[in-house]
Amino acid sequence: MSDLTSSIQSIESGETLELRHRILRPNQTLEDCAYPLDDAPETLHIGCIMAGDLVGVASLFHEAQPGQNDPLAWRVRGMAVLDCARGLGIGGRLLATLIENVRERARGGHIWCNGRTGVQAFYERVGFRQQGDVFDLPPIGPHVVLTLKMGAE
Ligand SMILES: CC(C)(COP(=O)(O)OP(=O)(O)OC[C@H]1O[C@@H](n2cnc3c(N)ncnc32)[C@H](O)[C@@H]1OP(=O)(O)O)[C@@H](O)C(=O)NCCC(=O)NCCS
Q1: Which residue has the least CA distance to atom 14 on ligand 1?
Q2: CA 145, CA 65: separation in Å to the nearest integer?
Q3: Is 1 a member of any domain?
Q4: Which of 3, 42, 114, 152 is 20 to 30 A (C-alpha) from 106?
Q5: Domain CATH code at residue 124
Q6: Using one digit for the tens of pLDDT, what is the confidence trace for 39-94?
Q7: Taking the model in full, what pTM does it have?
Q8: In the chain, what is the straight-line distance between the N-terminal and C-terminal CA atoms, in Å?
Q9: Does any ligand 1 atom lie closer than 6 A to the CB of residue 50?
């Protein structure tokens, strides 16, 4: 790409589907790429626009971990950057934007995600830590729960 100028902005849930499908779930249908809380009022979807194209997406849900009831739990999901736009800092900016959004909403609590083991370090570099053991999420593969504790100050 010649124009590397990009901007992160809020997008509609439906706009996330194509990139989720192409990057995260190419072997599933477009409908499989919708998440249950996509249209919940507290959900935030963001995208990165570069040279007029949507090249990255990520979503934030107000959602507790299974079996827990932390009212200040936020889930990062559907983090995906097109292959041709990787390594430019876009994924990092998307993640930082979601973390900042949580900081603005509430004090304390935590952010979590089911991270693919292959990208675990992408989350750990900004403070996420592995919780528990690696588990399989068919048909995608091995994952770990990664959590980021939010300061209460
Ligand atoms: C993971 C992903 C979102 C990263 O996006 P990106 O735009 O390439 O990431 P960035 O360029 O912002 O990288 C930010 C930092 O994370 C690091 N990083 C990026 N991908 C990484 C990976 N797979 N493993 C370890 N570190 C990674 C970069 O080296 C960079 O670190 P630095 O600032 O110290 O150099 C992107 O590779 C992707 O969409 N992958 C396929 C889908 C996927 O696995 N999504 C996550 C599902 S849990």
Answers
A1: 92
A2: 9
A3: no
A4: 114
A5: 3.40.630.30
A6: 999 999 999 999 999 999 999 999 999 999 999 999 999 999 999 999 999 999 99
A7: 0.96
A8: 42
A9: no
